[in-house]
Write a sequence for this structure.
């Protein structure tokens, strides 16, 4: 029996337009032949075992939610957020090994076995002699500040960080910015915008005297500058200067593994070095470190103060009992210390870092392709939108970065963070706003959480908001907390006229 001939044209008429378009594209693509790629793609060095179902919202719902939150993304409920780029602090996805470690939690009040596992990991990968656990990074900042700073002291640092600076001030000190000038220029392509300007530091030493400087506060992948690293060449010169004047260097090690990766990629001398070796060399040039383990170390809670000075360590052990918990748990459960010890080892894996920072680079390049002004070079943990340039028609005292975060949320459910005039707070002497040169929106990428498709959604949303930037109006502050106002401040939208 003869087969019935199919009428292809009639068959095609019954297809939806979208399917017809796809069929046409597929037919055309078969005729094309691509050459092998010059540069190979990379993929995440893990596979997904479990997913969290996200709640999808409409723009009308999001308009309601952002008004209720006072245009502050910190005050949004997490259930109302689609892609959460507020912070990389405590938002990482832990590995199966870390979850297995949690099941081995030793919850003894004193001498938990998990503490000794964590301590051994810190000593192995960072090289410090003594470890004091804390509930998170600011617990370590508080202890260090109270033990080393006296009223009238100056604490030079490579740009301020909000909680660090506040703890220094509460202890009676005053922060002094000694970062290179390029760090305050969003468009500068300096590869190490986290470097210390040694001339600025020497001037402070000459004017104030080394005895008034308890330590240099050195941050890796400087957050407020756009996640910008310092170089080992600069750190070695800083160590030499500080040794001459007998001044400590205290490292903010929150994202120091990422800084080590940047050194490997941008400092030729270290191109063939292992990340773990670069990390150990960085730490060997400092006298101690505060760590918010919720970032690099891939855990949801925890931190520590690491020291080489035994006398300072003894004092820290006494203080941690008062404010955090016993010196062998410091506010953490045993299971969290176990996950932290494992996470430290995973944090220096080069495949992990290549994927983690590669995702940030991917998003940054997409935004540059759309013509969106961002901080360059792209840093490690986040993309920083240049709100001062994007919303150039909005005065800084109408909070352009805060405004931009709200607009992004309404457009697509993305939650970002302001890093500008709101974060900078007020001058304690004049009461006026501090006006930082950088007015930024931080799109912070959690580790091992989102896919490249999520990054595409983010880039497209930013591009859409950027296209209508001239129609956006600023905000006025309606509620202002006295300290760290960016967490809880409230705003309302300004209207024309």
């Amino acid at each position: 029996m003869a087969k019935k001939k199919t009428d292809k044209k009639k068959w095609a008429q019954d297809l939806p337009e979208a399917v017809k378009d796809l069929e046409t594209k597929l037919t055309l693509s078969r005729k094309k032949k691509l050459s092998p790629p010059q540069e190979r793609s990379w993929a995440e060095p893990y596979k997904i075992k479990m997913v969290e179902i996200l709640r999808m919202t409409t723009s009308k719902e999001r308009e309601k939610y952002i008004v209720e939150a006072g245009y502050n993304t910190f005050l949004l409920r997490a259930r109302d957020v689609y892609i959460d780029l507020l912070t990389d602090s405590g938002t990482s996805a832990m590995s199966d090994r870390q979850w297995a470690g949690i099941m081995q939690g030793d919850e003894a009040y004193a001498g938990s076995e998990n503490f000794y596992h964590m301590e051994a990991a810190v000593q192995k990968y960072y090289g410090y002699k003594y470890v004091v656990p804390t509930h998170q990074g600011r617990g370590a900042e508080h202890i260090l500040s109270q033990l080393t700073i006296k009223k009238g002291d100056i604490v030079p640092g490579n740009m301020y960080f909000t909680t660090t600076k506040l703890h220094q001030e509460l202890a009676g000190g005053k922060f002094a910015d000694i970062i290179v000038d390029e760090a305050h220029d969003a468009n500068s392509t300096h590869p190490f915008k986290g470097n210390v300007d040694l001339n600025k530091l020497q001037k402070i030493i000459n004017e104030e005297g080394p005895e008034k400087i308890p330590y240099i506060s050195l941050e890796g992948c400087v957050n407020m500058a756009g996640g910008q690293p310092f170089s080992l060449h600069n750190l070695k010169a800083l160590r030499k200067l500080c040794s001459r004047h007998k001044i400590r260097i205290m490292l903010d090690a929150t994202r120091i593994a990422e800084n080590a990766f940047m050194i490997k990629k941008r400092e030729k001398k270290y191109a063939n070095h292992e990340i773990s070796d670069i990390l150990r060399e960085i730490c060997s040039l400092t006298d101690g470190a505060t760590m918010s383990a919720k970032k690099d170390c891939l855990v949801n809670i925890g931190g520590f103060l690491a020291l080489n000075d035994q006398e300072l360590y003894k004092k820290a052990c006494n203080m941690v009992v008062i404010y955090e918990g016993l010196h062998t748990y410091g506010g953490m459960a045993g299971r969290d210390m176990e996950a932290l010890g494992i996470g430290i080892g995973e944090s220096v894996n080069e495949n992990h870092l290549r994927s983690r920072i590669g995702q940030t680079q991917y998003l940054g390049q997409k935004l540059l392709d759309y013509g969106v002004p961002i901080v360059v070079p792209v840093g490690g943990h986040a993309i920083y939108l240049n709100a001062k340039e994007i919303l150039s028609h909005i005065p800084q005292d109408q909070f352009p970065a805060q405004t931009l975060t709200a607009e992004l949320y309404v457009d697509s459910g993305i939650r970002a963070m302001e890093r500008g005039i709101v974060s900078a707070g007020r001058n304690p002497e004049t009461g006026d706003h501090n006006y930082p040169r950088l007015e930024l929106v931080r799109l912070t990428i959690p580790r091992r959480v989102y896919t490249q498709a999520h990054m595409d959604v983010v880039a497209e949303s930013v591009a859409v908001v950027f296209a209508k930037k001239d129609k956006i109006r600023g905000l006025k502050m309606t509620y202002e907390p006295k300290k760290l106002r960016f967490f809880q401040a409230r705003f309302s939208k300004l209207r024309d006229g």
Remarks:
- The mean pLDDT is 94.
- Residues 34 and 256 are 40 Å apart (CA to CA).
- The chain has two domains: 59-81+350-493, 96-347.
- Residues 59-81+350-493 form a domain with the Aspartate Aminotransferase, domain 1 fold (CATH 3.90.1150.10).
